Amino acid sequence: MRLANKLAVVTAAASGMGRAGVEVFVREGAQVVAVDINEAALIDLAQAVGPAVRPLVADLTDLERCRSYIHQAAEMLGGIDLLWSHAGMPVDGRIEGLDMAEYDRSIMLNLTSSVLAAGEVIGYMRRRGGGSILFTGSTAGLVGSMASPVYSAEKFAVVGFTKSLAQRFAPDNVRVNVVCPSIANTPMKQGFIGASTDPEAFEKVLTASIPLGRFASAEDVANAALFLLSDEASFITGVALPVDGGFTAR
Ligand SMILES: NC(=O)c1ccc[n+]([C@@H]2O[C@H](COP(=O)([O-])OP(=O)(O)OC[C@H]3O[C@@H](n4cnc5c(N)ncnc54)[C@H](O)[C@@H]3O)[C@@H](O)[C@H]2O)c1
C-alpha cells in the first residue's frame, strides 16, 4: 500500500476531487481526517468509506478555523504526515463592478486558508521527521484565464507560495507541491458551466480546448494527488503538476 500508516488531512473532502482523494488514500492505507463545511456530506463519506475516515466540520473562510482545524486533526490522528489543502471556490469573472465581499471570501478560501494551514501543520510534520503538503491550483494558475481573472490571480499565488514554501521547508524534509487541474467533472464544474448563458455550447467549447477531448474525472486528480503525497514522489518538491489532458501543453 502506497500510504501505509500515514496520517492525512484533506480539505473540501466531502465532494468531487477531495472525496475521491479520501477514498483512494484510505484504500492505500492512510488514516484520514476529512474536513468540510458540509456536515451531512461528511457523514455520508464516513459511512461509505469506513472508520479510517474521521469527519471534521470547518468553514475555511473563517480565519481562526483555518488554524484550529489543523490542531484538532492532529489530536484526532495523533500527528500529521500529509496535508491536501484542496478547498477553493470559483469567482465571478467581472472586473468592473467587482463584488468586494465575494472577492475577500475567494481570497480567503483560495489562498489564505492554505497559507494558514501550512503555518500550523509544519510543526507537526517536523515532529514526525518530515511530511508532504499538497495544494490545489488550477490550469488558471499556470496560464491566464480570460473568463476568470481574479480566480486566476489567486491560483497563480498558490503556485508561487508552493515554490517558495518548498524551498523553505526542504530542510525539514517536508515536500510542497500543487496539483493543477483543468476543468474536472465535479459539482463545482456544474456551477461554473451552468452560470453561462448557453451551458451546452459553453461545455462544447471547453471540451474542444482539451487535447485529450474530455474533462478530468475526480479520480484523475485524486491519483495525481496520491502520487505527489506518497513516498514515490520523495524527490519531487516545488512542482506545479498540470492534470489537464494537455491543455497547457499548447
Ligand atoms: N472542478 C473544477 O473544474 C476545478 C478545476 C480546477 C481546480 N479546481 C479546484 O479544486 C478545488 C475544489 O474543487 P472540486 O471540483 O473538487 O469541488 P466540489 O464542488 O466537488 O467540492 C467542494 C467542496 O468544498 C466544500 N466547501 C465549500 N466551501 C467551503 C468552506 N468555506 N469551508 C470548507 N469546505 C468548503 C464543499 O462543501 C464541497 O464539499 C478548488 O480548490 C478548485 O479551485 C476545480
Q: How many β-strand runs?
A: 7
- Proportion of beta-strand residues: 15-25%
Report the biggest beta sheet as strand number plus sense, adding barrel if it closes. 7 strands, parallel
The CATH H-level superfamily is NAD(P)-binding Rossmann-like Domain
| N-to-C series of helices and strands | EHEHEHEHEHEHHHE
CATH architecture: 3-Layer(aba) Sandwich
* Secondary structural class: alpha/beta
Q: If strands are numbered along the chain, what order do they take across the biggest sheet?
A: 3-2-1-4-5-6-7
Q: Number of helix segments?
A: 8
Low-confidence stretches: none
Gyration radius (Cα, Å) is 17 Å
| Intertermini distance | 36 Å
Q: Mean pLDDT, as a whole number?
A: 97
Hetero ligands: nicotinamide-adenine-dinucleotide
- Total domain count: 1
CATH class: Alpha Beta
Approximate shape: globular
In the CATH hierarchy, the third-tier topology is known as Rossmann fold
Fraction of residues in H or I helices: 40-55%
Which quaternary structure do these chains form?
single chain
